[in-house]
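ARCHIVE CARD
SHELF: 3
SLOT: left
DATA:
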Amino acid sequence: MKWDVIEVKKIAPLVLQVKFQDGTIGKVRFENSHLTGVFEALKNPAIFDQVHIHNGAVAWPGDIDLAPDTMYAQIQSHGEWILR
């Protein structure tokens, strides 16, 4: 799918750069207010740094992932996705 993530890298604390199957590139920014519930583990830099791609989605250990279709739509519209 065009929104499958093919590259992900951490570029700053709580900031990722992603590249999609169709060549679209953008940023994903986490605000501290979003780091609750399942995402609370990402407060730990050692966990956040373990970002990887799993089945076309940005993921971390512990079954944490981001919906690639929503991420793609936000990046297409705004150049980045800010998770608040």
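SLOT: right
DATA:
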Amino acid sequence: MSKQNIVIYLLTSFILTCNCAFAANLDSIIKKSDLNKNSTIAVSVKDAKSGRVVYEYNEHKLMNPASVLKIFTMKSAYDELGKDYTFQTTVYADKNNNLYIKLGADPSLSTASLKTLMSNVKENYKKQVKDIIIDSSIIDDKQWGIGWMWDDDTNSLLPKYSPYSVNENKIDVSITPGTNGRMPEVKTKGDYHMSIVNLLKNGNNNSISFERKPWVSGDMTYVTGTIKSPASYKLPVSSPQRHFINTLNSVLSSSGMKYTGTIKTAPVPSGLNKIASVSSEPLDQLLANTLKNSNNFYSEMIFKTAGGHYAKSQGTTQNGVNMFNHYFSGIKSDKPVIVDACGISRNDLLSADWITSALNKIYGEDNSEEFISLLPKPIEGTLSDRLLNISLKLRAKTGTASGISSIAGYIDTKSNKKYSFAILIQNHAMSVLDVKRFEDELINEIYKM
């Protein structure tokens, strides 16, 4: 055997030995965990540059990814729309003194944005307004995803999404304890009326729950539990369209704008004069919020809009899914199943092997660093209190739902390798904190490689 072949043989043996020891350590962590007794754990680790498999465990099992899915739905939207894309809300005027508001599915649209828009309209348009006509055709009117849970209707992390969207379709609720034998008080802020059934009691702690009973009334919110000290909450509205119109009327009134007719809905005819518009931040900044803070509302609005752009038609979740499937069509792994953008649905299924293959596809593209930088690192967003010891070495997206935990992303190891990794855990009954600690133990072991 030549000297060169001996060197290659020794290096190969060394690498295999290291990989075997590394695999044994990960195997030991998994098999000693209480999670491994009655939950499903899947892990995949690959070299991000070469695609070489470094470690795998249940890597082909299809599992619920939770919010890890956002990495891939938002990457397909990012490539479709471009990082500089902005969501536009625009006002036009016709010859009959009607104003048309063309909604842009802007997930960040706020009362302040509408005030700016209407202030510009008032400055640029001096005629008496007859009707205000809203064009909501940019995306469809389906407000929740397939397989979402009805009892999440009051979950502030899952507001309904709609072309009629402002303030993330949530209102502020303040609750104060009662004094002198009186009941606690529940107040909603803003112009949206919501029927509140106040069943709260004064107590020794704050333990407050919100519930809607759609079989009784879709817009009646029951507040139960106990309250000791004042508290504030964000509560999703049940009717985004009514919420938007109420907010718009309030903005029109505060800006001194009046109209003599009514508010209607219709597409904007061609050839109208543009009066004013308001823009969102560029897409890359919106995605930073979406990925770092795991914003479900943003992800669904962006995905639908990008799907419409891809299909050259109205934005729908299905058009977004078609865009996603086209973007990741070249991956040779277990076929993914997705029905929403944010990963909330239990119908979403990905394997750990597919996730690392998709991460490697992203890493191999020219704009990879731009997009990867939008993922949270430790000290940011959902990683703000995790893995701080390797904060400069990790970019990853977490996922959490009832009985589900996941994390996936990129890690720069101590030996200066870049790995893609995915950890999926399903059907666990442990505390979220304990499950995240288990994930962190695995990631720290991967870092040592």
